[in-house]
What does this fold into?
Amino acid sequence: MLVVNEMKLEYIIILVIIFIILLAILKAGRKDAHLQLNKLVDYLGGKDNIISTETNLSRFKVTLKDVSLVDKEAIQKLGAKGIVEIDNQLKIILGANSKQLKKYIDDLK
It folds into this structure.
């Protein structure tokens, strides 16, 4: 009986350690995503350059005051699949991150 209790205790300790590691990984991922969103806003010319935002599936559409402030190359290095510029708007294909970016920018304003 003592051996069974020791084995249960070992499993519980292992599970707790795995849980702590998973929490650390998730927290680091959120911090990294927040940092990436900050960079993306900077590459769009800063929050004051952004007039409005929209999302459509994987596309992020942003209307800007001055498109010349945008660093398109840096945005693509962050993972954008493509960027289309029409007048003072950019349509950026970001994938699943487009909704998260819209929420982040809306919270900034």
